């Protein structure tokens, strides 16, 4: 939010002064040369002119699209996240005016109204870029190929890239599956799909994105990490603890951890082979050491049945299976 703190409230004289500077083509120059106190008053005066325009022409139409009828009534009815967006938009317009109002402007209010869209769009893209989200999400050619050119999955990939840069979550969930279900029906012409179908398709797109780990980490994982988790009310006495918001599902977390362990194992096996260890013994010892211990997982209930250590003991005791594992490892290492 703008810092408009001054010794006296911004009044009609301040607003008239800003309009006069704009008519003389001196608003931007005055802002760049002003001392902090004078600059704060300029900002406050421009803010006074800008906020009704932003609310009427940007905030109200957007809140209607979001189906927030209460938010369209006035500033005092805006929900907290909607109010944050409103202040971000007004700040963007004020900054834009103080930089770009370099020529004489007879009708400052009218000129400001024409700058609402470029000012807020530029600021929105800049904020996305600061957290690593793509400023203009487009479908990379390699991702389209990885998704087989499927029109809906390709569209969903773009929606995921857009959503990654949005600061809020979808309520208590990470992905806005209900909204995407409606979009899916529009793109495919099929009846609306269930949440299980959408969840499976999101995981399919994310798996394709993760084939480029650095790209995925920079443009999906990093901006997702900046999302503001919703604040839930404290549960009543005896009520169950609400489930935490998870940025990835347990299966995705397991896959990522296994990939890290596999990389660690390959490097350890390579070091043993360099020291002259026999391949089968090197592979068996490292695989058992790296994968053979089931770490305690605190974010889920323990699974029933055999552990990974039981499975490995059985696999490594089978000579044929061990030979296949050794052959695969040596092929990966290029030996």
Concise structural overview:
It is built from 15 helices and no strands. It is an all-alpha fold and 335 residues long. The model is unreliable at 1-6, 231-237 and 294-306 (pLDDT under 50).
Structure description:
The protein is an all-alpha fold and 335 residues long. 64% of the residues lie in helices and 0% in strands. Helix 2 (27-33) crosses helix 3 (36-65) and helix 13 crosses helix 15 (319-333). The longest helix has 30 residues, at 36-65. The protein is elongated, with a radius of gyration of 28 Å. The chain starts with 11 loop residues before the first helix and ends with a helix. Mean pLDDT is 79; it is low at 1-6, 231-237 and 294-306.
Itemize the secondary structure elements and their pairings:
Elements: H1 12-23, H2 27-33, H3 36-65, H4 80-100, H5 108-114, H6 116-130, H7 141-146, H8 151-164, H9 177-188, H10 195-209, H11 213-224, H12 250-274, H13 279-291, H14 308-317, H15 319-333
Helix pairs in contact: 1-3, 2-3, 2-4, 3-4, 4-6, 8-9, 8-10, 12-13, 13-14, 13-15
| Uncertain ranges | 1-6, 231-237, 294-306
Would you report the number of β strands? 0
The profile of the biggest β sheet is:
none
C-alpha geometry: elongated
Q: Given the helix and strand composition, which structural class is it?
A: mainly alpha
End-to-end distance? 60 Å
Rg (C-alpha, Å): 28 Å
Q: Please give the count of helices.
A: 15
* pLDDT averaged residue by residue: 79
Order of helices and strands: HHHHHHHHHHHHHHH
Q: How helix-rich are the residues, as a percent range?
A: 55-70%
Q: Which strand-content bin applies to the residues? A: under 5%
């Amino acid at each position: 939010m703008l810092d408009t703190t001054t010794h006296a409230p911004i009044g009609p004289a301040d607003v008239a002064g800003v309009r006069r500077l704009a008519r003389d083509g001196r608003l931007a120059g005055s802002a760049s040369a002003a001392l902090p106190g004078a600059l704060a008053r300029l900002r406050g005066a421009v803010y006074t002119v800008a906020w009704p325009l932003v609310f009427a022409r940007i905030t109200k139409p957007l809140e209607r699209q979001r189906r927030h009828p209460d938010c369209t009534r006035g500033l005092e009815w805006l929900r907290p996240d909607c109010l944050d967006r409103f202040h971000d938009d007004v700040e963007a317009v004020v900054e834009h005016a103080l930089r770009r109002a370099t020529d004489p402007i007879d009708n400052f209010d009218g000129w400001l109204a024409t700058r609402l869209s470029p000012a807020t769009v530029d600021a929105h893209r800049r904020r996305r870029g600061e957290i690593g989200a793509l400023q203009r999400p487009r479908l990379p050619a390699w991702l389209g190929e990885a998704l087989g050119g499927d029109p809906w999955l390709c569209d969903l990939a773009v929606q995921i890239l857009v959503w990654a840069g949005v600061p809020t979550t979808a309520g208590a969930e990470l992905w806005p599956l209900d909204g995407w279900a409606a979009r899916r029906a529009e793109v495919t012409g099929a009846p609306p799909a269930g949440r299980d179908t959408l969840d499976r398709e999101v995981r399919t797109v994310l798996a394709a994105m993760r084939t480029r780990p650095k790209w995925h980490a920079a443009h999906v994982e990093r901006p997702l990490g900046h999302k503001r988790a919703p604040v839930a009310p404290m549960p009543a006495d005896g009520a169950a603890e609400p489930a935490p918001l998870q940025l990835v599902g347990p299966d995705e977390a397991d896959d990522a951890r296994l990939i890290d362990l596999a990389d660690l194992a390959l490097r350890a096996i390579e070091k043993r082979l360099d020291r002259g260890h026999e391949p089968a013994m090197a592979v068996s010892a490292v695989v058992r050491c790296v994968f053979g211990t089931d770490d305690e997982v605190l974010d889920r209930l323990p699974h029933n049945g055999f552990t990974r250590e039981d499975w490995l003991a059985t696999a490594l005791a089978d000579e044929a299976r061990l030979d296949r594992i050794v052959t695969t490892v040596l092929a990966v290492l290029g030996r």
